[in-house]
Automatic annotation (TrEMBL):
This is Complex 1 LYR protein domain-containing protein. Belongs to the complex I LYR family. Residues 11-68 form the Complex 1 LYR protein domain. PANTHER family: LYR MOTIF-CONTAINING PROTEIN 4, PROTEIN C6ORF149. Coiled coil: none annotated. Pfam families: Complex1_LYR (PF05347). The lineage of its organism: Eukaryota, Metazoa, Cnidaria, Anthozoa, Hexacorallia. InterPro entries: Complex1_LYR_dom, Complex1_LYR_LYRM4, ISC_assembly_LYR.
């Protein structure tokens, strides 16, 4: 049973890191900050869940969100925008 928890924990952490990495790729400052905040909040909210079925469904939802974020980042990179004053150059 402990091996299952360790494997699922590593998969969850891998998904978390991938989502944060993709979230930092958004060209718009507002999207980057929103994605980072939303990802962290969602993972913190669900960190105490131990039911394998619930974890599996949340992982599926996270994978779907990751794929959507990848599509949005690639679309956002096609169009240039001016940087906000708050952004570093």
């Amino acid at each position: 049973m402990a091996v299952f928890k360790m494997a699922s924990r590593s998969e969850v952490l891998q998904l978390y890191r991938q989502m944060l990495r993709i979230g930092r790729s958004f060209t718009s400052y507002n999207y980057r900050m929103y994605a980072t905040r939303r990802i962290r909040d969602a993972f913190r909210e669900n960190r105490d869940i131990s039911d394998p079925d619930v974890i599996k469904s949340l992982m599926k939802k996270g994978q779907d969100s990751l794929e959507m974020m990848k599509r949005q980042v690639s679309l956002g990179q096609m169009y240039r925008h001016t940087k906000l004053v708050i952004e570093k150059e």
